[in-house]
Specification:
The complex is a heterodimer of chains A (about 110) and B (about 110).
Chain A lengths: L3 E4 L2 E4 L5 E7 L5 E8 L3 E10 L2 E4 L7 E2 L9 E3 L8 E8 L1 H4 L4 E2 L3 E5 L1
Parallel strand pairs in A: 2-11
Antiparallel strand pairs in A: 1-3, 3-8, 4-5, 4-9, 5-6, 7-8, 9-10, 9-11
Chain B lengths: L9 E5 L4 E6 L7 E7 L6 E7 L4 E3 L3 E6 L4 E6 L8 E8 L7 E3 L3 E6 L1
Parallel strand pairs in B: 1-10
Antiparallel strand pairs in B: 2-7, 3-4, 3-8, 5-6, 6-7, 8-9, 8-10
Classes of the chains: A mainly beta (about 110), B mainly beta (about 110).
């Protein structure tokens, strides 16, 4: 089944404790992206990657890091999480040749930072 | 499900009616416009997109209209069904060489049987 998977689905952590949210897709998509979703604010793009070793900032990159060492994986790293990073996070992927904006989203990761 | 619709515009329709969801975009440089649907507890799902060189595009039961003069985008859903109940987001992008995508706040559509 073609899908985007995220782990963990739920995470409660404390301020300053480094964490990584993994994202993996099995559709051989070049493009991957991370978004956060907060009530009333819609989805805001954190980082995106057009291909392996190519990443760029979205609208809200502060406090986040990403890496793209393999096509299928695009982990989101929070080096020192803070309470304002409490949010619902989505990973997405697409095949730019067929439709960059026809993005497939993962099920989401609910992160709470206390 | 998780609350993502705090103070969002809402549209309530009866099953079988046509629905029109509106969106204003801000970036004059945007040349791709996309609609996504998000059901409660799920990630967004692509519905349809339109390039700036088009005014209208039709899909299965959906039509997107683009008015670049007033920077306005709309999604029309024909014969709305209870399964169409969701939050609908418009989004805008620039070209296909970049990957930056900006979403609107969303509209909650509720379809009553």
């Amino acid at each position: 089944e073609a899908q985007v998977t995220q782990n963990p689905r739920y995470l409660i952590t404390v301020t300053g404790k480094k964490l990584t949210v993994t994202c993996s897709q099995n559709m051989n998509h070049e493009y991957m992206s991370w978004y956060r979703q907060d009530p009333g604010l819609g989805l805001r793009q954190i980082y995106y990657s057009m291909n392996v070793e190519v990443t760029d900032k979205g609208d809200v990159p502060e406090g986040y890091k990403v890496s793209r060492k393999e096509k299928r994986n695009f982990p989101l790293i929070l080096e020192s999480p803070s309470p304002n990073q409490t949010s619902l996070y989505f990973c997405a992927s697409s095949h730019p040749s067929y439709g960059l904006y026809e993005q497939y989203f993962g099920p989401g990761t609910r992160l709470t930072v206390t | 499900g998780e609350s993502v619709g705090l103070h969002l515009p809402t549209l309530s329709v009866q099953e079988g009616d046509n629905s029109i969801i509106n969106c204003a975009y801000s970036n004059s440089a945007s040349d791709y416009f996309i609609w996504y649907k998000q059901e409660s507890g799920k990630g967004p799902q692509f519905i349809i997109d339109i390039r700036s060189n088009m005014d209208k595009r039709q899909g299965q039961r959906v039509t997107v209209l683009l008015n670049k003069t007033v920077k306005h985008l709309s999604l029309q859903i024909a014969a709305t069904q209870p399964g169409d109940s969701a939050v609908y987001f418009c989004a805008e992008g620039v070209g296909t060489s970049y990957g930056k995508l900006t979403f609107g706040q969303g509209t909650i559509l509720t379809v009553h049987p």
